[in-house]
# Entry
Amino acid sequence: MSLIERPRRLRRTALIRDLVRETHLSADDLIQPFFVSQTANEPEAISSMPGQMRHTVASLVEAAQAAAQSGIKAIILFGIPHEKDPEGHSADDDKGIIQIALKALKAAKVPLVLITDVCLCEYTDHGHCGLLDGEEILNDESLDRLAATAVSHANAGADFVAPSDMMDGRIHAIREALDDEGFEQIGIISYAVKYASAFYGPFRDAAESAPAFGDRRSHQMDPANRREAHREAQLDVEEGADAILVKPALAYLDIIRELREEIELPLVAYSVSGEYAMIEAAAAQGWIDRQAVVLESLLSMKRAGVDLIMTYHATEVANWLR
# Structure
């Protein structure tokens, strides 16, 4: 029997497979998240995220230098402050943990793009993403606090701010505040499509930011909704975002694919703590090939259409790719 179509011809050897590969993953695609703590005297292991640490400023600088040496180009910082209060004043304090960390990274001349998370949940004693009236999360009243935090980060050396709070109108408020303070060149990576996901548990442990009551479903997106993601992304583009982020990643590849068709800005996926923890737990039991699963999962995000991936595996993957 003579077959006209033989797709296996293009799979026959490793060299041929490399030659015709459609999607490529590189260190340039990866962003490494780091936790930095104002209360830690030495790096602290995060039990729910094996291999990840709550860094001191000194150990953060060392880890960032290692990340740069691996070939990645950017990191994102999450802060754990010394003190928390109802309005999260540590978020925009010039002596706050993120501000100190940014200045240390700049002083060390670490060759990385520095991105900062902008939200109040890590800094409020109630663990919610905005100001409260009783148990109601106030939207408009929270915008000034978020904008002040972004300006403070820019002043300390951030290259991009990444608002993750999901308050309506915060991209416009932050863009206006940055511009008014002369930071027109500082970019905004918007968590435009952030779902109220069950995959965030280890992060809240790591950042000590679990809500003291209730949940975040009044402002994070319902996992059942697809059309809403398009509306959220378009609104943030119109308000001045420079890149659009989808979070989580693996359970929302359909959303990434659809947004890629309509968004011309850089598209970012956040492979979140729960995704990381599941891989690490399964690998620790010997149930999966850890390296193969990490690479396959990240490749699926690139194949879906993202330009950049925030992943806790970033530095390690960059070294593998080298």
About this structure: The two ends are 44 Å apart (CA to CA). The first strand starts at residue 30 and ends at 37. Residues 25-321 form a domain with the TIM Barrel fold (CATH 3.20.20.70).
